[in-house]
Amino acid sequence: MTFGSMPHSLDVHFLPELTAAEELAGGTVVVIDVLRASTTITYALAAGAREVIPCLEINEARHIAGRFPPEQVVLGGERGGLPIEGFQLGNSPAEYRSQVVRGKTVAFTTTNGTKALRACREARRVLIGSFVNAAAVCQALVGEERIHLVCAGTGKRITREDVLLAGLLMNRMISASPRFDYRQNDEAVIAGHAWHVVDWLLQGAIVGAVERDLEDILRTTEGGRNLEAVGLGSDIALAANIDRFDFVPELYVEAWSIRLPGGREAPVTQGGR
Ligand code: MLT
User: Residues near ligand 1 with C-beta < 6 Å?
Assistant: First the structure.
């Protein structure tokens, strides 16, 4: 294989801290924080939130929320996995119900996910990826020339749940394309192999394995164990609901706002919980 002849590239980045902003400049980035920021953002938009504004700091989120009439905004996010004092919502997907967020702006801050988004500010497009919209993400990437899958990790440590999603996205793109001619970096190949093993586990092909489904597997990851430790293990099932939604939230960098693409309306059936 002669890499020089391949005009397209698909790179996985296990941590934003291992990636220079210039590396992502001009490319199409998918930000991945399976447990839970990217999953929760997707649930929020599915439930009809107008937009999600990612903020690095708690005070920044409060400040941004203060610019809106109180009935048009909610504060959401976590520190140490738990809801933040004075915020209406934590970072559990189940909290982002239509009755609470429909038509509203969510000023949102989480420990790692919002940092990963900031790291992508020079990209041409920034998409939000999770298991719950994996098929839609693959669809959105068709024809993109320079793709970066950026895993958020946790506290500068690589997390398996994010790497697994990167691997699933990559393997699906490869199977969907008869002539997949993207140059891949080593992290992409590692992620693809990691997802292959999970695929075998899910098909029952590994003797003695105790995990039966994606939820079981996510429970054994770093993010899964952290959630169990703070009593929020029930969020894992919602994050493992693969392909539940058919849209990809997009961060519009100039406006610094995450919305449904192309001014699309929130889906009523899927998100109207
Ligand atoms: C984060 O952004 O750090 C995560 O989403 C953490 C969490 O959900 O607890």
Answer: 33, 35-37, 78, 81, 91, 110-113, 154
Cα 242 versus chain centre, distance: 12
CA dist., res. 51 & res. 73, Å (int): 10
Integer CA distances (angstroms), 152 to 12, 102, 140, in order:
11, 27, 20
Q: What pLDDT band is residue 136 in, cutting at 50, 70 and 90?
A: very high
DSSP 131: G
**What is the chain's mean pLDDT, rounded?**
92
Partnered with residue 78 across adjacent β-strands are 83
- Going by C-beta distance under 8 Å and a sequence separation of 6 or more, which residues neighbour residue 5? none
pLDDT tens readout for residues 155-191: 999 999 999 999 999 999 999 987 888 999 999 999 9
CB 122 within 8 A of CB 22: yes
Q: Could you tell me the distance, in angstroms and rounded to a whole number, from the CA of residue 113 to the centre of ligand 1?
A: 6
